[in-house]
Amino acid sequence: MTVIVRDLRPGVRADLEGFARVRHAALPYILSTPESIVHALTRTHPRARFRSLVAEEDGEVIGTAQTGLVHDSPEPGQGFLNVYVHPDRVRHGAGGLLVRTAEEYLAGEGATKLFAWVLEEPAHLAFAERHGYGRRRSAHFLRLDLAGGTLPPPWSPPPGVELRTAADFADDPRPLFELDAEAAADEPSDVEAELTDYEAWLAETWRHPLLNRELTTVAVLDGRPVAFSVAFTDGHGRYSTAMTGTARAHRGEGLAKLVKTASLHRARAAGCTEAFTGNDTGNGPMLAVNRGLGYEVCATEVRYVRELG
Questions:
Q1: Which of 92, 95, 145, 193 has a Cα at 20 to 30 A from 305?
Q2: How far is residue 151's CA from residue 268's CA, in Å, rounded to a whole number?
Q3: What is the predicted pLDDT for the residue at 274?
Q4: pTM of the model
């Protein structure tokens, strides 16, 4: 049995379903559908030089990788590769071949520093370290049972604050882009990035196939968004918070908890049964909000980095 690595074929349904199947088996805490996989491949900014790879054995997709350049960072030469192999098909050589293929590609594109997320499990960590990667920061995945769990009751917004949805901004989403750019700039990260391209944001974020605008909840003050909780859904009862952010001038006022609580109640009313989110382990305020909502840590990922040359 021979393992080969090749590019994902976005027009081949079996490729997309195989990619989604592997990602769900290896990383069930992040929503992945054939439509979202095509979207990432075709709508990521061209400067990212983004590629999706599959490892195939006897015609079956058993591993995946997404790789590219951090094009929106002021520091040049940064690349990323995230590799996942189906848990039932590890030790077939797929992971190592995916890593080598991605590294060679990124080096050819001028990358000198490579970042990768790795599940905090002994075998995964040892794999990364064998390939020359060193440990950096970490992040938790958290899960909430929306079907059987108990949510805190919704609470009234502060005076002057109105709760709306992203659907209310369909005619002009630029105010949400501006809030997203401000919030993203302050997220804990070892890769600095700047969200400045509105057209790219429209293509990649606003038109993302998993974005649920009716469940994405926005706090508005004096006509401007000041906090939001972005909701992704996969149509199979799974809900994920893609981003929760608050304008700098209004942090510490409980608005993140307000919008996230409201979004979760809307999600449960819409039939969602399982909710996921993720937090940097150093983001104490947001971890406290999520734990207060009933989320529990279900897995941890570690950020690894390798310097080339």
A1: 92
A2: 10
A3: 97
A4: 0.93
